[in-house]
Write a structure and sequence with these properties.
Layout: E1 27-28, H1 30-48, H2 52-72, E2 78-79, H3 81-110, H4 112-128
Parallel strand pairs: 1-2
Helix pairs in contact: 1-2, 1-3, 2-3
Protein name: DUF4190 domain-containing protein
Length: 131
């Protein structure tokens, strides 16, 4: 077995040996990344209005992950504070919009006059459909 006599620069090592004492690379917090993913998914779900309840659940999960991501970002060698803040903001926005939508829908349903107008419009549209 022959070994190479090439000089090795500081901070590098042959491919089969790990580098010791070299610079460490910071890792982005997984919780922060997932907070951003859940925040975007929650906001999109709430904005569709049909999936608002799903968006509320995703938003709550995103808030929890955003807080965990912020706490993890304070550890040495872990980054992702901005990603966690972005996920937290989007998740909070999705939850607020989802709750506002739910409040508006429940207010509309509890308003008897509004429900009667909606029923009248649906029956008028049903009468206009070709048979």
């Amino acid at each position: 077995m022959t070994t190479s006599k090439r000089p090795v620069r500081a901070g590098t090592a042959p491919p089969d040996q790990p580098v010791r004492g070299g610079p460490t690379e910071a890792k982005t917090s997984a919780a922060a990344t997932f907070a951003l993913v859940f925040g975007v998914a929650a906001l999109i779900s709430v904005l569709t209005a049909i999936l608002a309840s799903v968006g509320l659940v995703l938003g709550i999960i995103g808030i929890v992950l955003g807080v965990v991501g912020l706490r993890m970002a304070t550890r040495p060698g872990v980054t992702g504070r901005g990603v966690a803040i972005g996920g937290l903001v989007l998740s909070i926005l999705a939850v607020v919009l989802g709750l506002a939508l739910a409040a508006g829908v429940s207010t509309f349903i509890n308003n008897e006059g509004a429900v009667d107008r909606l029923e009248r419009q649906v029956s008028d549209l049903r009468d206009k459909l070709p048979r």
